[in-house]
Design goal:
Blueprint: H1 2-15, H2 17-45, E1 57-66, E2 69-73, E3 76-77, H3 80-87, E4 91-100, E5 103-107, E6 110-114, E7 117-120, H4 124-127, E8 131-135, E9 146-150, H5 151-158, H6 161-164, E10 168-170, E11 175-183, E12 194-197, H7 198-206, H8 211-219, E13 224-232, H9 238-259, E14 264-272, H10 292-319, H11 321-333, H12 338-375, H13 387-412, H14 417-422, H15 432-465, E15 475-479, H16 485-499, E16 504-510, E17 519-526, E18 532-542, H17 546-550, E19 554-557, H18 566-570, E20 571-575, H19 576-582, E21 591-594, E22 597-605, E23 620-624, E24 631-636, H20 641-655, E25 663-665, H21 666-671, H22 675-709, H23 711-719, H24 724-758, H25 769-795, H26 799-804
Parallel strand pairs: 7-12, 9-11, 18-23, 20-22
Antiparallel strand pairs: 1-2, 1-13, 1-14, 3-13, 4-7, 4-13, 5-6, 8-11, 9-12, 10-11, 15-24, 15-25, 16-24, 17-18, 17-21, 19-22, 20-23, 21-22
């Protein structure tokens, strides 16, 4: 019987090729889009799952509150790991990672500029197991100046993992011995190229060779500079661990804070390693976080696309019910019951869905290169051919087949054979009200996506073009090598040489640039009554001339000046937000203490957006740069940018031939903060187009069938003198009304949805009425064009042929 159902279904498909093609292509497009989103969602939701025992690996995150200002960090204090290991018996093992700046590494005489480097405790590989291709994980990081490389870095430096073991790598300050090579996790927040032994850092602090590290060590419980990972003997002991962690804060951390006479409160929380990637509330992560909201949004978009494809099938199937009425009547006369008729039509629906699924897989494979470009990922369909993916395909097959075929099956099986076979007229073609509702729903969803895409585009353009309080255009930045004293001593020489070029407006050195994630420091500030208050503020290290180079305006006081020796050791500047936050009436001359720095406020800048426009301008303290880290920034003028950049880079290579050059433009660097929005725009746009395509495909099929049903009426009207234009209007007006209803529903829904999305930004584009009007007119035009083409074909038919059609 089942074989017979599918045989009949196959014959029906061949008998109606146009109808079948519209259904299959529409369903395939919806399923393909759904599969692409599934790849993205599965990728985002499975970060760090490949790590063995990942369900029992956790990280400590820190919540620090200073006088009402709460900061949430993925980092934790330096001594926490040792205290946890010693005082909380539920802890099986704990270890720390400390990220470091980009470094120049010499392999023999060949320099390489590398990032994603970390200091790691010797116990790290006990907490997070890595596959060692060379070396012993138990001892690899025991000795000072030991380094474990990723397989990629070992191959880059030495050709293979085996060749790397025992080799020496020279950094600016130390020479490290390669004691291990590990296989990197491809799908993890742990984007690490090399692990340097933490004992190197501890030895340097002990010997007085790392004053900065020593200063942070002294601040102990407020030096939020390490990632602390741990495992438990028994995961079910987590409540007991959390209770004892809170007790540790109460017994150890809070007394230390009171001893320092600070007003801070500290709270530590546990974060499963599997949750890190999508917990985008933490600052200063090892790798870019995902966005849980976008995962949910795209999942909803996938369901919408699948729903629209199903609606198309339901609409066309019920509309064509008249063509199948006599077939149903005859089957019932010869003994078929309603249940058998339902099974027949559901079988037909599942067959169409199966064909659409096969086509969808081919479309997905062809679309993956473009999708990879939109998402900045490296998906392959074959990499997802696992049990979950196969179950998802089966789920889609059954869901779409049953959802799309259920109403037509129940509707058609309800025909009474006596009425169908006795009447000369065709029965009504399904529930007209339901079909109209489904068309409205289709275009409502489509228009919401179109408006969403337009708003995201407008917001992105607003972010990139808004006045930031500084000039980011035509500013070339060159990374300075870390810790190279020779470069530090002679940097002024190359800066003077670069200044001589007629297209160079100015050159300056700085420790930080706008768009870079800044450090946050505890400061002790003198208030208006002369008392000390403790605050945490973002800190930017700059050299004299940097503010002027970027056109950052002074509100009062003066900027740093090389001609005033006291500026180097005893001066700071504030932005206007910091002055307001500290409650200063007269900020100039106020004393401010940092960890190892006692200074007075010499100037106040106007607020400038040194960070993403997702957030308002936070309080900022500007401190004179004391080291050679950071950037040499050059403001370029004139039109011949390429030659000017080549001149600057040539001068730099002459000056620092041992160091690879890394240069970039400040505007590009700053705008990288909006990559998530750029991806969202690209994906939204892509799927908005697909949504309209699927909706119009269904509308075209529905318009075709409507025109076919009214062929005789069209012939009579033409004989009586109706023009082609009048007939086109007649056939189009019903669809136009449906699209107008969809517009009326979609506009408020889109406005509410995008208002919610824009809440993530401190600075928001104004959603112009014209944006909604243009989107609505665009959707209406596309719909009317789709219907109008089919209506015109029907209107141009010879009336004699039309009158003979029945």
């Amino acid at each position: 019987m089942l074989k017979n159902y599918f045989k009949i279904a196959w014959r029906n498909l061949l008998r109606n090729p146009a109808y079948s093609a519209i259904n299959i292509v529409g369903l395939a497009t919806g399923i393909s889009a759904c599969l692409l989103i599934f790849l993205f969602v599965q990728h985002e939701l499975t970060y760090d799952r490949e790590i063995p025992n990942s369900e029992n690996i956790y990280r400590i995150v820190s919540n620090i509150n200073f006088q009402g200002k709460n900061d949430h960090f993925g980092l934790s204090p330096m001594p926490l790991s040792e205290h946890m290991q010693r005082e909380i018996p539920e802890v099986k093992q704990s270890a720390r990672l400390g990220a470091i700046d980009k470094q120049t590494i010499w392999v023999g005489q060949q320099p390489f500029l590398e990032d994603h480097l970390v200091f790691a405790d010797s116990t790290f590989f006990e907490v997070i197991p890595y596959t060692f291709l060379a070396g012993d994980p138990k001892t690899a990081l025991d000795a000072p100046r030991s380094i474990v490389l990723s397989e990629e870095l070992a191959t880059k430096f030495f050709g293979s993992a085996d060749n790397a073991l025992g080799q020496l790598l020279t950094f600016t300050r130390y020479t490290f011995k390669v004691t291990g090579v590990v296989k990197s996790y491809k799908h993890s927040h742990l984007a690490v190229n090399a692990f340097l032994s933490q004992s190197t850092r501890e030895e340097a602090i002990r010997l007085g060779k790392d004053p900065g590290g020593a200063a942070f060590a002294e601040s102990r419980w407020l030096a939020i500079s390490f990632y602390t990972y741990f495992t438990l003997h028994n995961p079910e002991a987590m409540p007991a661990f959390e209770q004892k962690l809170a007790q540790l804060v109460k017994n150890t951390v809070e007394p230390w804070i009171r001893e320092q006479q600070l007003s801070a409160t500290v709270r530590f929380e546990v974060q499963p390693i599997q949750d890190i990637h999508l917990s985008n509330s933490s600052e200063q992560e090892l790798s870019p976080s995902g966005n849980k909201a976008y995962v949910y949004i795209f999942s909803v978009v996938a369901l919408f696309l699948l729903l629209i494809a199903c609606i198309n099938y339901m609409n066309l199937a019920t509309a064509r019910s008249a063509k199948r009425a006599r077939e149903v009547g005859l089957r019932k006369v010869v003994g078929a019951d309603r249940y058998q008729i339902i099974k027949q039509f559901l079988g037909e629906s599942i067959l169409i869905t199966l064909l659409a699924l096969i086509l969808a897989l081919a479309m997905t494979e062809l679309s993956i290169p473009l999708f990879n470009k939109l998402t900045d990922k490296q998906f392959t369909l074959s990499s997802f051919l696992n049990l979950n993916f196969i179950l998802t395909l089966l789920g889609i097959l059954l869901f779409v087949g049953l959802a799309a075929g259920s109403y037509p099956a129940f509707f058609l099986s309800g025909f009474r054979p006596v009425e169908v076979l006795k009447s000369d007229k065709s029965p009504r073609s399904g529930n007209s009200w339901l079909r109209r509702t489904l068309v409205v729903l289709q275009f409502t969803i489509s228009l919401v996506l179109i408006i969403g895409t337009a708003v995201v585009y407008s917001q992105l353009q607003f972010l990139k073009n808004k006045s930031l309080g500084f000039d980011k255009e035509k500013v070339l930045a060159i990374n300075l090598p870390v810790g190279d004293t020779t470069v530090a001593r002679h940097l002024s020489v190359v800066m003077e040489q670069v200044k001589q070029h007629p297209n160079v407006k100015g050159v300056a050195q700085t420790g930080n640039i706008p768009g870079e994630e800044l450090g946050r420091l505890l400061v002790l500030a003198e208030d208006n009554e002369g008392q000390e208050i403790d605050k945490t503020m973002n800190v930017m290290f700059v050299e004299p001339g940097f503010l002027e180079l970027l056109g950052i305006q002074l509100k009062e006081g003066r900027a740093f000046d090389r001609g005033i020796p006291s500026d180097e050791k005893g001066a700071v500047m504030l932005n206007a937000a910091a002055v307001k936050w500290l409650g200063y009436d007269k900020p100039l001359g106020k004393r401010i203490k940092l960890i190892d720095y006692d200074a007075k406020v010499i100037g106040v800048t106007e607020d400038f957006n040194y960070a993403s426009l997702h957030s308002p301008v936070d309080p900022l303290i500007l401190v004179p740069l004391k080291h050679s880290n950071g950037y040499m920034v050059t403001k370029i003028q004139g039109q011949d940018m390429r030659k000017t950049v080549a001149f600057i880079e040539r001068k730099w290579r002459e000056f620092a031939p041992k160091h690879p050059i890394e240069s970039f433009f400040l505007d590009d660097f700053f705008d990288q903060q909006y990559r998530a929005e750029e991806k969202m725009l690209a994906i939204f746009g892509y799927f908005a187009v697909l949504t309209i395509l699927i909706a119009c495909l269904g509308l075209f099929g529905l318009a075709s069938f409507t025109a076919e049903q009214r062929t005789k009426e069209i012939g009579i009207r033409k004989v009586l003198g109706s023009t082609v234009w009048e007939i086109v209007l007649l056939l189009s007006k019903d669809f136009a009304v449906l699209v107008l209803v969809a517009i009326a529903l979609a506009l408020p829904l889109a406005w509410l949805g995008m208002q919610y999305w824009l809440q993530d930004f401190a600075y928001q584009v104004h959603m112009s009425t014209w944006l909604f009007v243009i989107a609505a007119l665009g959707a209406l035009s596309i719909a009317l064009t789709t219907v109008g083409v089919q209506a015109a074909r029907a209107a141009l038919l010879n009336p004699i042929q039309a009158l003979r059609s029945e």
